[in-house]
Amino acid sequence: MTTNSDRAASASRIQTAQAAPTIRIQCTLHNDPRLIVGASAIAAHVARQRGFSERAQEDLAAAAIEACREVFRFRPNRGSLPTAQLSAASFPDRVEVTVESSASRSTVRPAPRAKRPAKSGAAKKGKAFVSALVDGVQQETREGRACITLVKYGGAVKSRPKV
Question: At residue 52, does pLDDT exceed 90?
Fold first, then answer.
């Protein structure tokens, strides 16, 4: 005899399975323009595997670059270069790209003046630019570290023809 708790446990397992990413790529990036471009390639790859249009892939890739730049605005006090953890994941209804700083805000200082963006409102333009490219942007602090999550929604997953 099946009880309500058995049904609830079964439903919970099904929901967990549906919420699990089908593709996940994780890596550590150093503040190097060549590596930041790599972040865009990772985001575009996950979006392509998810079946997004070429335009959606390009938008997510551009937003990933801006998110990396935002996270790298701060660097550790000890003179070391900052790093960031990048995670790109494909879910049945969306792709998420998360960039998290390796340094907590309590141990960081702003980048030297020569590396800072101009005070012409570039940071505000960058945030507006990212928001226009993706469906959701979540900025938060996790254990004192800056974290930006980009979300791009897509339609139902299309089955691929068998070869």
Answer: yes
Q: How far apart are CA 58 and CA 80, in angstroms?
A: 32
Window from 1-10, 110-119, 147-156 with minimum mean pLDDT: 110-119
Its pTM stands at 0.70
Backbone angles phi, psi at 145, to 5 degrees: -105, 140
All domains of the chain in start order, with CATH: 22-149 (3.30.565.10)
**Alpha-helical regions (H) of 2-151:** 4-19, 33-50, 54-71, 122-133
> SS3 for 13?
helix
Alpha-carbon span 59 to 66, nearest angstrom: 11
d(CA 122, CA 113): 14
pLDDT at residue number 109: 45
**With contact defined as beta carbons under 8 Å apart, do 115 and 71 qualify?**
no
User: In a 10 Å sphere around its CB, with 0-12 CB exposed, 13-18 middle and 19+ buried, how is residue 126 labelled?
Assistant: middle
Write down the pLDDT at residue 64.
95
Mean pLDDT over 87-103 rounds to: 92
Crossing angle, helix 54-71 and helix 33-50, to 10 degrees? Answer: 140
